[in-house]
Amino acid sequence: MQTPNTQILRNVIMAGILIVAGSIVYLFFRPNIILFNKLGVTNFLSGIQIEVNVSQNFFVYFLMYCLSDVLWYVALLILASTFYVKEVLVSKILFATMVLMPFVLELLQFARLLPGTFDWYDIVFYCITLIIFVLLWIRKPNCLLLHR
User: Fold this and answer.
1) Structural domain of residue 81, as residue ranges?
2) Within its chain, how far is the Cα of 29 from the centroid?
3) Mean pLDDT for the stretch of residues 94-103
């Protein structure tokens, strides 16, 4: 049986791996994003960019435009659930904020209040990710998450 500190560390490492994995798509396939422009690394990353035709296949589209968001959302959910304390109001508010954050960001992009590209597929995959995550949390809270 893992100690709570071991579970926390495992979840933080797992979230970090998911964030790095999600970033790889942007680094090699989509370096022209706003973040990289602000950091001034777009020209460098464009030199290592791999060109892919996404119009031929939905799977390729998913890999290029949705997978990173799904991986980052899973990382966010893992971190949110790891530090969630049922009895603490602030914890509940932070948890709800983290669960809703990707949906709110997409809607702000849709309303053109936030730079970026709104994508219905992102909303759909966020919903699927959240449903799977909740089902796993309910079914086996100590397997994937630290449930306090």
Assistant:
1) 4-144
2) 17
3) 92
